[in-house]
Every structure is written in structure tokens, then in C-alpha cells.
Design brief:
The protein has 259 residues and is α/β, with parallel strands linked by helices. The protein has one domain: TIM Barrel (Alpha-Beta Barrel). Helix content is 43%, strand content 14%. The chain contains twelve helices and eight strands. Helix 11 links the parallel strand 7 and strand 8. The chain starts with 6 loop residues before the first strand and ends with a helix. The chain binds phosphoenolpyruvate. Phosphoenolpyruvate binds next to strand 8. The site of phosphoenolpyruvate has 13 residues, from strand 8. InterPro entries: Aldolase_TIM, TIM_sf, TrioseP_Isoase_bac/euk, Triosephosphate_isomerase, Triosephosphate_isomerase_AS. This is Triosephosphate isomerase. It is found in: Cytoplasm. Keywords: Cytoplasm, Gluconeogenesis, Glycolysis, Isomerase.
Length: 259
């Protein structure tokens, strides 16, 4: 939408080992190359598990692929005694361009709150990694009609203390929890309602320039068959794709939604 470059980001979650990751990225690259995909017109990013990142980096570098890659999480800490965590500096060293922060599965299974999500976003930004900040309501909130207020409170919490300059290069993914992995996709109007409200809140928190610059993605059961109508919404600038991103042909078709 507008002058923002659409971003299609695939969240593989805990799927694909490093051999499978290499095959998947190769197939994705070939499919997009065959279709003469313009990566400047629609950016394509995959977010594999941490253990795959080095293999993906090697492939992307050696074949000069235009596919970007990101992490699914990042530590809020810079270094030290944090067993099991992966720092922003480690990820930057692997050429990682993006980090998903605050995915609903991390909020649910790892008790991540908005303060931690914000700290992770700050850690990413400090290493020049773009955070994809995930927000979105659960089913009960949706049924109560409180999805906008709920989601905007998450935006307020995650962006607390983030500078205007850093906010402008961040990405926000609106992912209604009831639509993730359920096959239940939000209507284009549902997606627009909340994505538009998020942009409005960015204008209030920062400026019209920041609101104009930030890419707001929709996520939740996006497939090649439903992506175009969602992308037609003025405040939707891309998609965060889970299940469908594991199939390179399908994910390529999602990235090619305009054709
Ligand atoms: C996600 O996990 O971010 C997601 C949107 O999953 P799915 O596309 O499978 O609903």
C-alpha cells in the first residue's frame, strides 16, 4: 500500500532441519526466478529456526539470492549468563535482517509480555535487525468487540521507549490469535480495521511520517488463494505466513499475489 514496499515473511516455526531449509530456500528462489520476481517490488523473507540460519546464510551468499532471512525470536540481553538464548549480535553476524518478536506462541507458551517484547525489539534495532513486532487479540477479545483497543495497548507497550527513528524502520504484524494455524482467516475488512488503527496509533505516538513509513503486515492462515484481497486493503503492507510458507511453491505464489 502507498509507497511502502510489501513484505512477505514466512515463519517456519519449529519445522525443517538445516538440510530441508536449504532445499526449501533453493526451491523458493528458483520458483521466484522463473517467475521473474522483482524483489524490490515485493520483499521476500524466510524466518527459519536458529539452527538453520547458518545454512541459509551460506546458500543466500553463495547463490547471491535476493531472499532475506530473519530469526523467530531474539534475546533482550546483549550477552552473558542467559542459557539457551541467542543475542542480536550473534544474529547480525549471520546476516539476519529481521527478527520476529512477540509472536502469540511465545506470548502464550513463554509468558512474554509487552515489556519483554519491547526489550527484544530494542535489542534487535540496536544491532540493525528489523523487528517484526507481533500483536493481535484472542477469540474472547474479538467476540467482545475489543480487538482494536486490545491490540493498540500491545503496540503502546511494545513501542514504549523506542525512538521515532527506530519505530520508523520497524515492522508490525497484526495476527489475530484465533486466525493463526486454524484455517480461520480474518476478512479483509477485519484486517484493515486493526491495521488501520495501528497506523493511526503510530501517528499519535510518533508522527504522520512514522505512520506512513511502518509496514503493517497481516498474519493468520494466509494462503495464495486469499492473499490478494487482504493485500488490497490500504493499510496492509504484507503478510506474516506460517503454515503456507513451508511449501516453497505456495509461498512463492503468495509473494506473487499481484500476478
Ligand atoms: C504465524 O504463525 O505467524 C501464522 C500466521 O501462522 P499461519 O499462517 O499458519 O496461520
Amino acid at each position: 500500500a502507498k509507497n511502502r514496499t510489501p513484505l512477505m515473511a514466512g515463519n517456519w516455526k519449529m519445522n525443517l532441519d538445516h538440510h530441508e531449509a536449504t532445499h526449501t530456500v533453493q526451491k523458493l528462489a528458483w520458483t521466484l526466478k522463473d517467475a521473474k520476481h522483482d524483489f524490490n517490488a515485493v520483499e521476500v523473507v524466510v524466518c527459519p529456526p536458529f539452527t538453520d540460519l547458518r545454512s541459509v546464510q551460506t546458500l543466500v551468499d553463495s547463490d547471491k539470492l535476493e531472499i532475506g532471512y530473519g530469526a523467530q525470536d531474539i534475546s533482550a540481553h546483549a550477552k552473558g549468563a542467559y542459557t539457551g538464548e541467542i543475542s542480536a549480535a550473534m544474529l547480525a553476524k549471520l546476516g539476519v535482517g529481521y527478527a520476529v518478536v512477540g509472536h502469540s506462541e511465545r506470548r502464550q507458551y513463554h509468558a512474554e509480555d509487552d515489556a519483554l517484547v519491547g526489550a527484544k525489539a530494542k535489542a534487535a534495532l540496536a544491532a540493525d535487525i528489523i523487528p517484526i513486532v507481533c500483536v493481535g487479540e484472542g477469540l474472547e477479545i474479538r467476540q467482545a468487540g475489543e480487538q482494536v483497543a486490545y491490540t493498540l495497548a500491545q503496540v503502546d507497550g511494545a513501542f514504549d521507549g523506542i525512538s521515532e527513528q527506530d519505530a520508523a524502520r520497524s515492522v508490525i504484524a497484526y495476527e489475530p490469535v484465533w486466525a493463526i494455524g486454524t484455517g480461520e482467516v480474518a476478512t479483509p475488512e477485519d484486517a484493515q480495521e486493526v491495521c488501520g488503527a495501528i497506523r493511526g496509533r503510530l501517528a499519535e505516538l510518533y508522527s504522520a511520517e512514522v505512520a506512513d513509513a511502518v509496514r503493517v503486515l497481516y498474519g493468520g492462515s494466509v494462503k495464495s488463494g486469499n492473499v490478494a484481497t487482504i493485500m488490497a486493503q490500504p493499510d496492509v503492507d504484507g503478510a506474516l505466513v506460517g503454515g503456507a510458507s513451508l511449501d516453497p511453491t505456495e509461498f512463492a505464489a503468495i509473494a506473487r499475489y499481484q500476478s
